[in-house]
Amino acid sequence: MIKLEMKDILKEFPGVRALNDVTFSANRGEVLALLGENGAGKSTLMKILSGVYPYGTYEGDILVDGQVCRFANTREAERAGIAIIHQELNLIHGLSIAENVFLGREPKTKWGTIDWKRMHGETQALLDRLHLPFHPTHLVSTLSVGQQQMIEIAKAISIQAQILVLDEPTSALTESEVQRLFDVIRELRREGVTMIYISHKMDEIEAICDGITVLRDGSSVGSARIGDVTRNELIAMMVGRDISQMFPKAESVPGDVILSVQNYSVKKSPDTYLLQDINLDVRAGEVVGLAGLMGAGRTELVMSLFGALGLKAEGTVRISGTRVNIQTPRDAIQAGLALVTEDRKESGLVLSMNVRENTSLVSLQTLSSRLGKLDHKREHGLAARYIEELRTKTPSAETNVNNLSGGNQQKVVLAKWLATQPKVLILDEPTRGIDVGAKVEIYQLINQLTQAGHAVIMISSELPEVLGMSDRIVVMAEGRVAGELARADATQESIMKLATKGA
Ligand SMILES: Nc1ncnc2c1ncn2[C@@H]1O[C@H](COP(=O)(O)OP(=O)(O)OP(=O)(O)O)[C@@H](O)[C@H]1O
Ligand SMILES: [Mg+2]
User: Fold this and answer.
1) Fewest CB atoms within 10 A around its CB: which of 237, 265, 378, 410?
2) Rounded Cα–Cα distance for residues 441 and 37 (Å)
3) Under a CB-based contact definition with an 8 Å cutoff, are residues 78 and 160 in contact?
């Protein structure tokens, strides 16, 4: 029996047709993957389903069990059993877990006041069910992003959603949190909940989904059962062309040491080390992959090198042979470092600015005359160049980044740092949320940089990416360097062996 159908959906934003006649359906108790490139229209389609874009702002029909649904807002969609967990989390940090779960539908006592006892009791039951060791009164701000994701799921369960949309739910989860999430998805599937799962991670889709539907440029291009298509066929459906080589690593000839880190330590308290005795050299033309488990200290290391950790470091750092003392990100940029972080909202983008302004944000000095006047022509040229090279999908360079799809926002972050022409480019999860086709473009840009003599450090939780693009892999564990592997010797197993050393 058909549970959910969306028919002939059309949606326009000023200057963009985001959805152009999309049709798709999902059965009861099915996990359906919604696939497509950045900007294909996945999030927009799901926002229509869940009432974020109300009836009247789009054309076409939503049918649940044959009944036409016209939602004026998300509350109405929730009442019809449809919940969405957004790509960008939506919880209110200053409120408790229970307050977030019951926001806007708090249980009331017979006197009309909030029934805290019931609210906390029901929240506790949800937390127990998800094996989450928190108290309903804990503030959401004390939880990690992964834990917040689980609270969103608790909320969806509590409204007894029959249709649950998960928009890139694992982008900030640890490996064990992903497994926990998958357990919950399987349990909900057994209970007959229909789930729509958006992700750019093919491994996950193969692991958890029953079927797929692909969108391209706002149109549906096809559907299939998961076992009936190969991964290459899927990718070709998404990007409209064959991708012959996922990791187009160029031969590189390492040159002089550009970044040299010696005896580098950072303490988090007088007697505990966050980073201990790190030695690391990165040469011109080289990509050094930093591998390790979550919490091994990779992000802390690059943040500290970039002057963004706020903790005192011991040891020496040299750039092109000169000793540097980096205390702030400004010092780091001046010294020739660039850091693309995993969290584009926190440290990457100014959402109220347009694509051009964000792209030139860190390069204003080099784009200005000696008297400090910005060269507008060069600024426009810079923005246009990166939109083309990264294939950023945006109506124009003057579009607010707020209006771009998640993956396209990430491309603007990359453009901003590439534009500084750094001596050392540090990438922390650079392709998170980026579609498979655009990943290849980014790898090619990395090649161009190394061939021009720049050095690259890359952190990625996706081992195939580290293996595919690094010349050397430095493995960290518990704040130390656990070992180093040459490209030729590195395998998933040899990396994992070092990463779990001593654990
Ligand atoms: N609020 C908005 N205003 C203007 N344009 C928008 C808005 N939201 C989305 N768009 C545009 O609609 C198109 C589809 O965006 P959408 O966010 O649905 O893509 P997506 O498939 O979810 O991509 P991603 O994988 O990057 O998250 C894009 O061209 C995007 O720029
Ligand atoms: Mg999206």
Assistant:
1) 378
2) 13
3) no
Q: Give the residue, by CA position, lying nearest to ligand 1 atom 29.
A: 39
Burial 244-273 (b: 16+ CB within 10 A, else e): eebeebeebebeebbbbbeebbbeeeeeeb
Residues 322 and 395 in one domain: no
> Are 235 and 267 part of one and the same domain?
no
Domain holding 167: CATH number? 3.40.50.300
Strand ranges inside 201-246, DSSP E: 211-216, 219-225
Looking at the fold, whether 29 and 122 belong to one and the same domain comes out as: yes
Q: Which residues are near ligand 1 (CB < 6 Å)?
A: 13, 16, 18, 36, 38-44, 87, 393, 403-408, 435
Query: Considering 363, 394, 421, which residue would you say is the last residue of a domain?
Result: 421
For residue 42, the ligand 1 atom closest to its alpha carbon is 21
Give the whole-angstrom CA distance, residue 49 versus residue 466: 37
Q: Show which of 239, 270, 287 is a domain's final residue.
A: 239
**The total number of structural domains that make up the chain:** 3
Distance 43 CA to ligand 1 centre (A): 7
Residues 422 and 337: their CA atoms lie apart, in Å, by 5
Minimum-distance ligand to the CA of 402?
1
The answer to whether position 320 is within a domain reads: yes
Full domain range(s) for residue 395: 349-421
Nearest ligand to the CA of 44 is 1
Q: How far apart are CA 319 and CA 250, in angstroms?
A: 24
pLDDT tens per residue across all 503 residues of the chain? 568 999 999 999 988 899 999 999 999 999 999 999 999 999 999 999 999 999 999 999 999 999 999 999 999 999 999 999 987 778 899 999 999 999 988 999 999 999 999 999 999 999 998 888 999 999 999 888 778 888 998 998 899 899 999 999 888 787 888 888 899 999 999 999 999 999 999 889 999 999 999 999 999 999 999 999 998 898 889 888 777 788 888 888 889 999 999 999 999 999 899 999 999 999 999 999 999 987 899 999 999 999 999 899 999 999 999 999 999 999 999 999 999 986 666 567 888 899 999 999 888 878 888 778 888 899 999 999 999 988 899 999 999 999 998 889 988 998 999 898 899 999 998 888 888 888 888 898 899 889 999 999 999 888 889 999 999 999 999 999 999 999 999 999 999 999 987 55
